[in-house]
Amino acid sequence: MTGAVSEQFIRAAALDWLSSVTLDGTIPVSRAQLRDDFRIGGDRFPLVDAGRGIRRPRGWSAALSILTAAPEGAPSRPYDDSEGPDGLHRYKLRRDQRGASENEGLRRAMLEHAPLMWFYGIRPGLFHAIFPVYLIAEEPDQSQFVMALTEEQRQISPGSRVEETLRKYLVTMTRRRLHQPVFASQVMVAYDTRCAVCSLSHRELLDAAHIIPDSDPEGAAVVTNGLALCKLHHAAYDRNILGIRPDYTVEIHHRLLEEIDGPMLRHGLQEHHGRPLLQIPTRRADRPDTDRLMQRYAQFRAA
After folding, report:
1. pLDDT in tens, 70-80
2. What pTM did the predictor assign?
3. Residue 227: inside a domain, yes or no?
4. Which residue of 19, 61, 140, 236 has the fewest CB atoms within a 10 Å radius of its CB?
């Protein structure tokens, strides 16, 4: 299919497919899936190009997707994004001659207000999908486009000096759409999408919990500050009902150990007291930081 109408149809179909495959952006998607699994009229229609970060299908005026790859050999991808005084995220252009057409595809997407899919690498070949995102301005001196990750961000004039309260709000929205979901995806991959305490494997019932809260200066959104926990154990951990020692042993607060309140309390919490975590990352580099666990465990003991 060709033409502007076909582009709109395929773009909308691709966004619907991506929403379904990723559970609305909550589970990662592989390069193989993005390359092979989306189809139009029975024909394979890749959502990414091999060796390129910008996907502009043949014959299209505007780009369809952008990609930020994870570095080869790294257990997880550090954040290297930049936010200007307006609180908005930037995406770099390709600077080589080969990328001229792709950059033009991004300009067309910006002018046409076309929704893009952003595939953010969490491991080589594995991506967290953020969609839809929009390009709202180009900054040629810095070889970059200004991105809007939410509808509210689309209303901001790029480069403007916004008041500090609004800037913090915009940065918070970026954290919710980018940093926190990417952190969650990295944690789920590290823990094989299982609760560290009980090994529950239903993604819809799992959270990426911070050991040190992200509101704390030491509460970085990195895998070593994270734990995959089911909803019950996440709530218990946050409220100092459940603690985790630096040797990965679970403790339940003594006030709950003395209660009698049915099978949920007994099987869900009390029986885990004194037991080791059932799920820890196989990569040593992904395992919980013992200093952070010690700091958090001290808070549990003091509660």
Report:
1. 866 554 444 44
2. 0.83
3. yes
4. 140
